[in-house]
Amino acid sequence: MNTGQDTLTYVYAIARQTQPLRELLAGLRGVGRAPVVLLAADPGSGSAPASTGPAALALLVSAVPQQDFNETALKDHFEDLEWLEEVARAHHEVVQAVAARETVLPLRMATVYQDDGRARRALTEQQPAFARRLAELDGHTEYGVKVYLDPSAPPTAAAPTGDAALPGPTTPGKAYLQRRKAQHHARETVYQQAQQAAEAVAAIAANYTPHRVRHAPQSGALAGPREDRLENVLNDAYLVPDADAPRFRTDIEQAAREFPDIRIEVTGPWAPYSFAMTPDKAADQAADPAGSVGQGP
Fold first, then answer.
1. Does residue 278 register a pLDDT over 50?
2. Which of 75, 71, 50 is nearest to 8 (CA)?
3. Per-residue pLDDT reduced to its tens digit, 139-171
4. Do the beta carbons of residue 72 and residue 244 sit within 8 Å?
């Protein structure tokens, strides 16, 4: 139990209390290798009664040092990539482990409360909204679809620029202009293919789900060391019914073969980070140092 003396209550996600979840948490460790436990709603406060049956909701929490997770410390830590990576990995591992067994509503990385009591009250106040969202996520999993291109590579079937057929001797100046025009044409061709690939992905995904979130394309550093030359031009997330997931992935991968100059990558399954849609009051708490603080993944 965290009473808020030297520690804060770190919240990973919201899930229904089930026996398989309790068994999983027996060996699960979170940020700083702290044990992850269930924290139920507070039956003595809030606008909605706390449920007590098999579908009762609970926060997945652990205690974290106040000196590292108070509002001032977090502002400094968010500039520390090594610290961020460590916390993000621990947060993600907890959420993914739970998502493998139960429907989970992930919360933003570094969501912390002053103590267990405040975390309980926040859950109690928002319990109906959280329950509705969990019901909507039942039987669904998030998948990512990314489109990459190499702007420096010539397309597989580049059309002639026309300059190569110009009569007369090729001077160094003309050769230079021809190369620049060819490069520009090749780049335009590759970007056109990327646009066509994005349209094909959207058309296929529409057969399986109406739920899409368009994230900002990743930078080269975020795309990974092997993607140094590649430019991420599409970074979409889809909430796909579990029964349709194998066909969704297969159809996207088959479509990718139609675009030899473009890389289309399907990632997942993931916990539904992109579709958590935390209610407004919880978002307000995230800006309140007496409630929760932090930035989401």
1. no
2. 71
3. 999 999 999 988 666 655 544 444 444 455 666
4. no
* pLDDT at position 41: 83
Residue 2 within any structural domain of the chain:
no
126 in the same domain as 20: yes
Question: Residues 28, 44: contact at Cβ < 8 Å?
Answer: no
pLDDT tens-digit readout, 247-268: 999 999 999 999 988 899 999 9
Q: Hey, is 271 helix, strand or coil?
A: coil
Contact 270, 144 (CB under 8 A): yes
Considering the domain architecture, whether residues 66 and 79 belong to the same structural domain is answered as yes
% the chain with pLDDT above 70: 71
| Kind of pairing between the strands at 37-40 and 104-106 | unpaired
The answer on 86 and 69 residing in a single domain is yes
Q: What is the predicted pLDDT for the residue at 73?
A: 87
Nearest to 36 by CA among 68, 70, 2: 2
Bridge partners of residue 237, in order along the sequence: 144, 213
3-state secondary structure of 147: strand
Nearest to 206 by CA among 246, 256, 251, 243: 251
Contact 238, 208 (CB under 8 A): yes
Q: Which residue has the higher pLDDT, 176 or 29?
A: 29
Which range marks the domain in which residue 97 is found? 7-138
DSSP string, 165-204: G--S---HHHHHHHHHHHHHHHHHHHHHHHHHHHHHHHHH
CATH number at residue 195: 3.30.70.260
CATH of the domain at 28: 3.30.70
